[in-house]
Specification:
Strand order of the largest sheet: 9-8-7-6-10-11-12
CATH topology of one domain: Rossmann fold
CATH architecture of one domain: 3-Layer(aba) Sandwich
Mean pLDDT: 96
Largest sheet: 7 strands, mixed
Bound molecules: glutamic acid
Radius of gyration: 20 Å
Order of helices and strands: HHEEEHEHEHHEHEEHEHEEHEHHHH
Number of helices: 14
CATH class of one domain: Alpha Beta
Structural class: alpha/beta
CATH superfamily of one domain: NAD(P)-binding Rossmann-like Domain
Helix content: 40-55%
Low-confidence stretches: none
Shape: globular
Number of strands: 12
Length: about 425
């Protein structure tokens, strides 16, 4: 059963919980919660048949105390201002948690892109980027891919910005390699997720060899996570995407599944597993359940069905805070999104640094640096959670909010 979850409320509840534990001053709390700037733009599109359709687009800049705003742009029919506000705030905490010099921002267009041609999406993307041009810049706000956007969309963004301001590869990250994208960026969020699973297994004494995994959402993040976890010895027994799910109790051939999904943009027809619904997948008794699609999939209506040992949040806000607390009380640990999926923005940061230096790093160097960032952040969160006997989620927010609060106070108002 699906319920409409208010991600902004979830995000504020979570902030309040951690700010309380930190003993933050009330006025400081209010300031850190409020977005710095919100831009809403109308995005008209001339369709291939000559008609005009209008869409709403947003860019929300939450906080830049630690550096320029940073975060993705998603194309999804459920995008609205509240959702973008909550996702922008998540980026502020995420970049602080992995200690990279950015603030948080997010953008989106309320559209289901599956009904539009490539040329229409190009025109729409360029028009949107022109709309948000006044508030972005390589030292102001640096967009990146998110749900239903990719390296190609970033290439159009970069080109559009370049027409107005001159060639500026550092204006967006997640670009194609040929246009200054970083080696390792496409796989980074999935790699960071796999590193998080490995660190979780090691902290809680779970043997990775043969550990069972279910992945809800086999897009960019989920498919790379599945591939890397297969290489680490885990047994991926279920996966799903928008077209449906598959269950393979003996474990998928993860490389073959990844290759098929990469080629066909879906897992249906891959020749492995039996059909399974999304609800059934979420309720499987696995070691690691990885929601890697959209927000709010684990909520008060289905939290009692969850039987995994760990929820690894590869998507943004897949578990509502009350559901997350309930899981914690039941002994199911939730490794939060701002830690699990931070690999993407971490390698975005490396991409931006390479662009500013006009110098390309080898993929090994990128991956080594990603590994170090992820492990350090995991250890900081795990040790605070042990020390204060709080959930990994609360600990992650405490580390992140404390860093942003310090930066805010040091800069002064
Ligand atoms: N959209 C991704 C996220 O939610 C990546 C953001 C970025 O690389 O700036 O973390």
């Amino acid at each position: 059963m699906s319920v409409k979850v208010n991600n902004l409320k979830s995000c504020i509840d979570q902030f309040d919980r951690a700010a309380e534990l930190l003993g933050l001053d009330e006025n400081l709390k209010t300031s850190l919660k409020m977005p710095d700037r919100e831009l809403s733009v109308e995005v008209p599109l001339r369709k291939d048949d000559g008609t005009i359709e209008s869409f709403q687009g947003f860019r929300v800049q939450h906080n830049n105390s630690r550096g320029p705003f940073k975060g993705g742009i998603r194309y999804h029919h459920e995008v609205d201002l509240d959702e973008v506000r909550s996702l922008a705030a998540l980026m502020t905490w995420k970049t602080a948690l992995v200690d990279i010099p950015y603030g948080g921002g997010k953008g989106g267009i309320a559209i289901d892109p599956s009904g539009y041609s490539e040329r229409e999406l190009e025109r729409l993307s360029r028009r949107f980027f022109r709309g948000i041009d006044p508030v972005i810049g390589p030292n102001k706000d640096i967009p990146a891919p998110d749900v239903n956007t990719n390296a190609q969309v970033m290439a159009w963004f970069m080109d559009e910005y370049g027409q107005l301001h001159g060639h500026t590869p550092g204006i967006v990250t997640g670009k194609p390699i040929d246009l200054g994208g970083s080696l390792g960026r496409e796989a980074a969020t999935g790699k960071g997720t796999a590193i998080t699973v490995r660190e979780t297994a090691s902290k809680f004494g779970v043997d990775l060899e043969g550990a069972t995994v279910a992945i809800q959402g086999f897009g960019n993040v989920g498919s790379y996570a599945g591939k890397f976890l297969g290489e680490m010895g885990c047994k991926l027994i279920a996966a799903s995407d928008v077209h449906g799910g598959l269950h393979e109790p003996d474990g998928f051939d993860t490389k073959a599944l990844f290759d098929y999904a990469y080629e066909n943009r879906m897992i249906k027809g891959c020749g492995q597993g039996k059909a399974i619904t999304n609800e059934e997948l979420l309720a499987l008794k696995v070691d690691f359940l990885i929601p890697a699609a959209l927000g709010g999939v684990i909520h008060k209506m289905n939290v009692n069905d969850i039987k995994c040992k760990f929820v690894i949040e590869a998507a943004n806000s897949p578990t509502t805070p009350p559901a997350s607390e309930e899981l914690f009380q039941k002994g199911i640990h939730v490794v939060p999104d701002i830690l699990t999926n931070a690999g993407g923005v971490t390698v975005s940061y490396f991409e931006w640094v390479q662009n500013l230096q006009q110098f390309r790093w080898e993929e090994d160097e990128v991956n080594e640096k990603l590994e170090r960032k992820m492990v350090k952040a995991f250890q900081e969160v795990a040790s605070l959670s042990d020390e204060k006997k709080i959930s990994l989620r609360s600990a992650a927010y405490m580390v992140a909010i404390d860093r942003v609060a310090q930066a805010f106070l040091l800069r002064g108002v």
